[in-house]
Amino acid sequence: MIEVKRTERGWGGHFICADRCLFRRNTLLEKDGVFVVVSTVGNLYINGELEEIGNKRLCETMAFYSDESDDLYHDADVSKEISFDSKWCIDRRGTQHSDNEVNDMHEAVVDELTGKLMRGEL
What we know:
By secondary structure, the chain is α+β, with helices and mostly antiparallel strands.
C-alpha cells in the first residue's frame, strides 16, 4: 500500500496577507498524483493591531487541490477548494486561543484529508 507523502512547507498556502500572520502552516499531501494543500493562517497583525482575517475569524484552515500547472511547488489552486468536516476556524468569542489550539486544528484537517486520500476519495 502506498502511503500519503506529507511535506511541511515554510510559507502561507492561502490568504493575501499571510506574510503578516504570526501563525502560518502549509502542508502538502500527495498520493497517486493527487496533490492537496492544507493551509492555516492567523494572528494577523497590521500596524501593531490584531486584525480579523475574515468575518470574526482570527485563524482559519483551508484545503485546496494544487495548481496543475505548478509541477515544482504544487501550490494551492484557490479556485479548487476541498471541503472537510473538521473544525476550520477560531474566532474572537470565548477565551484566548493558543498556537497549540491552532496547530491542533491544522493537524485534524491533515489527518482527515490523509484518510480521504488513502481511501481514494480525493
